[in-house]
Amino acid sequence: KAGVTQTPRYLIKTRGQQVTLSCSPISGHRSVSWYQQTPGQGLQFLFEYFSETQRNKGNFPGRFSGRQFSNSRSEMNVSTLELGDSALYLCASSGGTGYQETQYFGPGTRLLVL
Amino acid sequence: AQSVTQLGSHVSVSEGALVLLRCNYSSSVPPYLFWYVQYPNQGLQLLLKYTTGATLVKGINGFEAEFKKSETSFHLTKPSAHMSDAAEYFCAVTFSGGYNKLIFGAGTRLAVHP
Questions:
Q1: Could you read off the pLDDT of A24-63 as tens digits, one per residue?
Q2: B49 bridge partner residues
Q3: Beta-carbon contacts of residue A63 (< 8 Å; ≥ 6 apart)
Q4: Nearest-CA residue of chain A relative to B33?
Q5: Among A87, B16, B52, B74, which one has the highest count of C-beta atoms within 10 angstroms of its own C-beta?
Q6: CA–CA separation, A54 vs A32, rounded Å?
């Protein structure tokens, strides 16, 4: 089975712009979660989508949004980019509905905001 | 609130020596615990997880961890370090009702010297 894929792998944007990141989960997985990784704040949960519905949300401003499509692919959007949004954005997918399901991570999208 | 503390942001060992990476958690409900490894410019790879049952959990690449409820700990060990073990290691927790929201520790960077 192919793993979790994320596109693009690298992005450079300027302040004020918006960006959309894409995540394709492992085939058959219905849950997709997004995380932000920065040197200062570490790994932080953004949100999780399950069957096209946001099931859980972290403590991020409304500039961060996401959605999931019927094929379980997910997109994350950040509007009005700030310098502090520079980070590695990781997507993870999991199968099943249990809370202890293993999450499989993609390679991430590295976003640099100038 | 749930949280994870990893003692030691950097750990250095000699090749062949014991690896011990410490993780303590705080949770008011039974936790599900995970250890992930991250190699440079890559996503996270699951090493092992504890959900229920046996408290000593064996993972990939010779790693194991023991869940100690009385000490609220989930330390990661490997009897003999290999150069290829050099990476960053993250302890994470989730819990029933948390769906797939993982709360991560700050990470421990493991260096292995010849």
A1: 999 999 999 999 999 999 999 999 999 999 988 999 999 9
A2: B34
A3: A78, A79, A80
A4: A100
A5: B74
A6: 10
Question: Among residues A43, A17, A6, which one has the least CA distance to residue B38?
Answer: A43
First to last CA, chain B: 41
**DSSP reduced 3-state for A80:** coil
Q: What is the pLDDT of residue A2?
A: 81
Helix (H, G, I), strand (E, B) or coil at A61: coil
Q: Across the interface, do A107 and B43 touch by the CB < 8 Å criterion?
A: yes
CB-based contact A94:B46 (threshold 8 Å): no
Q: Do A43 and B101 touch (CB under 8 A)?
A: no
What number of helices (H) and strands (E) belong to chain B? 0, 11
Is the bond preceding residue A39 a cis peptide, omega within 30 degrees? Answer: no
- Whether B59 contacts B45, CB under 8 Å: no
